[in-house]
Amino acid sequence: MLTVCNGTVLTKDDLPQYQKAQQAVDIESPPQNPLQQSEHRMILEIVMQCNETGKAASREYISAKTKEHHASLFLSPQQVRRRLEDLEKKGLIIKRKGRGGTRMTEVGMSYLESLL
After folding, report:
1. What is the torsional sign of CA 77, 51, 48, 100?
2. What's the predicted TM-score (pTM) here?
């Protein structure tokens, strides 16, 4: 398959216009229900706190924090994993392997501010 781009690195500017529009819709679209929105907000708040303090935001840590501070919205590490995958697809976080933990993107910070 032939790919056309400016330079040697493919960027989002090299994508067809219809794909750029689809990406914007995916990032800006709110979660489908209030529970999902609450879970996303809770996870993003925990990730932001970890990023601010320099602590790695692992699935286990996020799960423990949900139990500690939000007993009614407790999420298991597996549930956190799935929520993080969803948040990463929307461009709100970046998941790192190993001890890197999860990092918030600028889009994620803006989204969290809009929920507050």
Report:
1. negative
2. 0.69
Letter for the amino acid at 102?
T
Beta bridge partners of 102: 95
Torsion 11-82-110-94 (CA) sign: negative
Contact criterion met (CB below 8 Å) for 105 and 92: yes
How crowded is the C-beta side of 105, counted as CA atoms within 13 Å?
15
Query: Is the pLDDT higher at 43 or at 101?
Result: 43
What does the alpha-carbon distance between residue 43 and residue 79 come to, in Å, rounded to a whole number? 11
